[in-house]
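Posting for a labmate who doesn't have an account.
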Amino acid sequence: MNDFITLLKTKELKATPQRISVLKELGKKMHPTIDDLYEALRKENPSMSLATVYKNLATLKEKGVVIEVNTAEGKMRYDIYSKPHIHLICRQCGAIEDVDYDQSLFAYQTTLEDEKRVKIERMDVIASIEACSVCQKSK
């Protein structure tokens, strides 16, 4: 929990119980939809409204703490943005796996920044696969 408080403070955000609850749930790395997130949060905080979840997600996204992952099914999923990583999305079951960048991607970012004369704040990389290891085993 202290990591979440520190993360919020580095982004100049108050560490409210609602924000900490949202980050704790996202910290499980399940990449929930808004509905999944709301249901999980209601178990811990029955009085939390859907509007509160939306409002806190919007604030956390605006400050770069949380990112939206747009999936092929059209439902946004959410993740904490702790470090650059790739979202590997299975087109068959919708599972999302985080994969660390390798050094060549950082080198490409530098090349792109030099070429376009810009500073890239963040690169969001989504890679779609036909079937993840779980789906391949079930065939």
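Reply:
Got it, the structure tokens are right above this. The chain has a mean pLDDT of 93.
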